[in-house]
Amino acid sequence: MAVAVAALTALASAQRSATFEGREATVVENAKVQLQVLNRGGALVSFTLNDDPQKLNPLWNPVEIARERKLPERFGDSIGHFVCVDGFGSSSKEEQAAGLGGHGEAHRQPWQRVSTSHTGGVTQIEWRANLPLVQETFTRRVELVDGEQVVSVESTLESLLAFDRPANWAEHATIGYPFLKPQVTVVDASVGRCQTRPHQNIPSNRTLLGGQEFTYPMAPLKSGGTVNLRAAPAKPDSLDHTGCAADPSRRLAFVTALNTESRLLLGYLWRREEYPWLQEWLNYPANLAMTRGLEFGTQPYDVPRRQTVEMGTLFGVPTFKWLPAKSKLASRFLMFLTRVPEGFTKVNDVRLENGQLIIEDRQSKQTVKLAASRPL
Question: Which domains does the chain have, with CATH numbers?
């Protein structure tokens, strides 16, 4: 009886129900971190350190931004880190007429929690979402090990159709104000060849020269010269977009965002063959309601499915995935949150070695090591 009670107590402390900005959510937590997942759409909406008195959440919360900046409230299905599947970007006029909106179906559907366990020090929760318009099933399993601050997220997309089809899938990880601040928050990533987004309808506040290849983080400006994309500009008033192929010399790709004031670091590590692209949505309005997408996925830009197929490849890297008939695509990534030491200002490398996540700043010669027992 005592063992059973202890097991129930451990499970209760590892996952529980909650509300996030008035919406039903599931909390996955341990002594180190707390992650909140929306029950509808499955967005990862809050990721915090338990020992952080401010409970600073790096993920984009448009409701909080609206409150703080005294703006009209905006709370759609696009929030925090949401998944775009099957579809990334706007849908075609024919798809729209058939009821398919932008960024696919999964982030708008109710997610059914199909299993929950806390065994051997590992909390594991699995959700399933039916995607009736594209006739697919999406499942996602989140795992958090006791004492660790690295979350493992494993997902599967299953086709219910009897023919091969092109699939589009992106993890729309998005950071926002107040974690994202001008000249304070910096982004680093393991990327190779990059391109500024070619635009047909050019935004009036676009600053980057469209359709140009560049070496991250130095991107070409419309006005001439280059700009370092690591940090948001000192005087925000721009909207830009870039696409980068993951570094082909690495098996695992990473992206990190570091607030140098709070020394809070959010990061992701994933298999390059599953998500070969990283695109960044650089949304920096003058009112400081800033967001920055760290979007790793199957294509360089959020464009309709037909366009990704017609593009085929960019820099020799495929711009969509094939989902075979009655088959599945699977992926896994790690998500981590940590405080870094004073003077740690740039992430040169993130790697997984012997059950540890190693985060390296070569300039300050400092390394952060996190226990990470779930493999990639």
Answer: 2-344 (2.70.98.10)
